[in-house]
TrEMBL record:
GO biological process entries: cysteine biosynthetic process
Keywords annotated in UniProt: Amino-acid biosynthesis, CBS domain, Cysteine biosynthesis
Domain of life: Eukaryota
CBS domain segment(s): 34-90
Family matches, as InterPro entries: CBS_C (IPR046353), CBS_dom (IPR000644), CBS_dom_sf (IPR046342)
Organism the protein comes from: Dryobates pubescens
CDD domains recorded: CBS_pair_CBS (cd04608)
Gene3D superfamilies per the UniProt record, alphabetical: CBS-domain (3.10.580.10)
Pfam family, one: CBS
The protein's name in its UniProt record: Cystathionine beta-synthase
Amino acid sequence: SKFVNDKWMIKNDFLDDIQEHKPWWWNIKVQKLNLSAPFILLPEVSCQKAIEILQEKGYDQAPVVSESGVILGMVTLSNTLTSVLAGNAQFSDPVTKVIYNQYSKIGLENSLGKLSCILEDDHFAVVVQEQTQFNGNGSSLRKEVVVGVVTAMDLLTFVSRDDKR
């Protein structure tokens, strides 16, 4: 049934956007949101420290990225607290115990229309950019770098601007 859902097809790159009456912002690229550089958590950060950092920074979620730059998942305040309070994790456990991989990724070159489709189902999207990394022998590896985390509030703030450029 999800294959006959246009929004799901757009979100997963199986279908180009077909919305007929697009708002002024629909085709603007995600990079125009001017997102601030995200902070990331390394896998060894404890649940307690993650909660403190998220509260201090005023965020609900943060990406967990390995030292080598691989995105391991996302950690959220609610998921961390729920896991700890349910006894599935301890405050001293590393955040890897409470991360989850059910999040959507979007590129800087994707449209705000695609982002809006993602945000209809998800609370946030991880903005990534592909990067080529070369090692000493000249072989290359493609990896994704987290360049931001975007929420519905970020999109709403952008589209509600007065100067609609």
